[in-house]
Amino acid sequence: MSLTKLTTSALAIAALSASAAAARDNVQVAGSSTVLPYASIVAEAFGENTDFPTPVIESGGSSAGLKRFCEGVGENTIDVANASRAIREKEIKACAENGVTDIMEVRIGYDGIVFASQISGPAFEAFEPADIFNAIGAKVLKDGAIVENDYSSWAEFNSDLPDAEIAMFIPGTKHGTREVFEDKVLLKGCEDTGAMQAMLDGGMSEDDAEDACLDVRQDGRSVDIDGDYTETLARIDANTNGIGVFGLAFYENNQDKLKVATMGGVAPSTETIASGDYPVSRPLFFYVKKAHIGVIPGLKEFAQFFISDELAGPSGPLANYGLVSDPQLSDTQKSVNEEATMGSGS
Amino acid sequence: MYDASLSSGAAPKPRGKSLLVQDARTRKRNAAEKRFRAYGMTAILIGLFFLVVLAVSIIRSGVPAFTQTVVDVEFTLTEEQYTAAEGELFKTKAYEGLLIEQIRDTLEARGLEVAFDAGAIERLLGKPGGTLREHYRANEQDLGSPVSFKLAAASRVDGYLTGRVTREALQDSRFMQASDLDLIDALVSADIITRAFNWNFITGADSGVDNPGGAGIGASVIGSFFMMLVVLALSLPIGVAASIYLEEFAPQNRFTDLIEVNISNLAAVPSIVFGILGLAVFIQFMHLPQSAPLVGGLVLTLMTLPTIIISTRASLKSVPPSIRDAALGVGASKMQAVFHHVLPLAMPGILTGTIIGLAQALGETAPLLLIGMVGFVARGYPDGVLAGFTEPNSAMPAQIYTWAARADASFYEKAWGGIIILLIFLLTMNIIAIILRRRFERRW
After folding, report:
1. Backbone phi, psi, residue A83, to 5°
2. Residue B199: pLDDT above 80?
């Protein structure tokens, strides 16, 4: 029976290839979906411009990426983790427990977080962190007391804003963007509205008050988006009153569908983010396992290529796509050349 | 008595009148039947309506992916320029710079009536550097003489010609400015910008997010193909052997009952669970490579096995016992009876089940998420059969999923185009299944 022959030979090939799969020759990356577009641009260029194979970039969120990064050293673990926030102490510890000790931190540039709504929707033009906090905080300050948030329209707490239903689509907790959103918008808003002070006065410890500030209302007016920005965009498309949290680059690619609001009186752009005027921006990173340099071909070259002036500089393709390039890029280049690891004084 | 009752005048009421007149009950029954037919028709019509809506929306969104806007240019690269460009770190960018300069000079020489600058040309061109470098590295004899290229234009140029980007909705940005549209119009009337069939979409590999013109699904078709090879090579023999044993040889006891129940349960397990299993067993424990079609195939094999076992057992059961009895009666051993008589007769059913199982596996994304086949995987074609199994590659549904998540609207088109290609594969497989069944089916 020729079918049997065919299947046996296919089986043999499969078994053979399994044993031949000893050495990995491509860089394996996973992590932040915010960094993914930039990493894919670099990976494509890296494949076209060098003799190394094109690296594989997976998505999944900063936390998921760093978790996989910290699983251990070896060819069946990833070499690079992309993150839209800095690595946490807890994660460094988890890494160390699995033998991942020498980690190189590479900052590639900055990204702005923008608040955008449907282009034909209500006129959401200017937000303050306080507005966002009042809209979606779990507990807010109302008439001098901390109460459960029952606002249903933006005009109820700020008459300058349109009288539209509150519907916000914010990044889910597995996204690094969430951390920046919490730090620079919710916490700031909590302080600005006086809710923080009221909680402290009410006898809460500082940590508890901060946690309470970051609590988001669970009655459906604030929706966590665990997917990509395209999911947020689809939600905004379907909801005239919806306000979404996007990366600057994503917004710039979809200007025909979205209009952006200023934050703290500053309109987001690469210039305002680079100058630090726009308040909601964060650095983007990738982390490299030093133990893999020299084992995985092209790993160090990939890291160097990523942050070279030609790519990550102000006139490179990353900036063209929406990355705000890092003024201190040359320091980062130097530390990558020296393979400086975290905690080694650089 | 009989007579009496007859003559008593209490004659039974004339029950039926004419057969041509329906009584109330018949009418009721007929009405019920009519209603049922109407329900059935409505159900089918609703189904058809959604099918048409789906097909129309897929085709309407996906067809633009099969054509693309190309810029027809003639380009001369000198030996010195080539060496200089190869000496740079970002070589493809250097090629692009040279190309833009030449296009500007040619356009100026032709005396176009619209104003333009190098920036505008750069915005119109996609990312031609890779194509150029590849060409000159392979054909060094072309250095110094003019070569004609058809280069994919930027996604917004494409959008402008297909109606996705309109003059009214355009916001000036570094991707495109209103003045660029005049230049596009001028180049279109000069036949420099044209529409062409997008072969690269069918044969190429994935590209970076800023280069939608270079993205193709070809490499992931190959990835899917190698995965299906693994699935076929493993699940067909294992599945058929398991079901023959269970159906023909195994004793009926608690243990085999337990196995049967578990196989049925396994068929209902969400596919992501197999992905988690694959990550833990094949990658972390057995140290097989990440993102490899081999691992994808192994995971999908686990998913397909129950489907194949169930359909194989059903088709073995449908072979009449008289065939077995006759074989055993003329002195065949049990195994001869099964392999010479039962199995050939059950073959069409087994093949149909296998092909449907494969088609299901072909469209699966969830288990691939965890073994690294979803994301930016753009290595292109594997070199050789062995590498096809182990080199990182994507699969068709994974590629579609990746494109759908990208910011540039032209990738969204590509995702729909990918769906069309995936559907073509699925339809072909289902048609093969139908043909096999029709050809080899036996009726008793």
Report:
1. -145, 140
2. yes
User: How far is A289 from B318, CA to CA, in rounded Å?
Assistant: 58
**Chain A interface test: which of B133, B368, B390, B400 (most A C-beta within 10 Å):** B390
Instruction: Tell me how close the Cα of A102 comes to any Cα of chain B, in angstroms.
Output: 21
Q: What is the residue extent of each domain of chain B?
A: 72-196, 218-440
Residues B57-86 have a mean pLDDT of 90
Give ipTM to 2 decimals. Answer: 0.84
Residue among B256, B275, B269, B243 nearest B353 (CA): B243
pLDDT band at A12 (very low <50, low <70, confident <90, very high): low
Tell me the angle at which helices A62-69 and A89-97 cross, rounded to the nearest 10 degrees: 30
Is residue A286 a contact partner of residue A103, using CB atoms and an 8 Å limit? no
**Are the beta carbons of A14 and B389 separated by less than 8 Å?**
yes
pLDDT, position B177? 84
Six token digits for residue B431: 């048609």
Higher pLDDT, B423 or A342: B423
CATH 3.40.50.2300 fits B218-440, yes or no: no
Among B233, B378, B392, the residue with its CB nearest the CB of A10 is B233
Burial of B431 (0-12, 13-18, 19+ CB in 10 A): exposed
Q: Which two tokens stand for residue A323?
A: 């990355």
**Residue holding tokens 């809710």?**
A195
Model confidence at B5, pLDDT cuts 50, 70, 90, reads: very low
Best A54, A174, A260, A337 residue to mutate vs chain B (most B CBs within 10 Å): A54
For residue B213, what are its two tokens?
């013109």
Contact call for B375 and A75, based on CB within 8 A: no
pLDDT of residue B18: 73
pLDDT in tens, A292-338: 999 999 999 999 999 999 999 988 899 888 898 888 899 999 999 99
**Inter-chain touch A17–B209, beta carbons under 8 Å:** no
Nearest to B385 among A4, A13, A71 (CB): A13
Instruction: Give CB contacts under 8 A, 24+ apart, made by A264-270.
Output: A264/A128, A264/A129, A265/A126, A268/A112, A268/A114, A269/A112, A270/A112, A270/A319, A270/A322, A270/A324
A301 touching B (Cβ < 8 Å): no
HEC states along A195-226?
Answer: HHHHHHHCCCCHHHHHHHHHCECCCCCEEEEC
Q: Specify the DSSP class assigned to residue B174.
A: S
Q: What per-residue confidence (pLDDT) applies to B216?
A: 92
Quote the mean pLDDT of chain B. 88
Would the pLDDT of A196 be above 70?
yes
> Would you say residue A344 has pLDDT above 70?
no
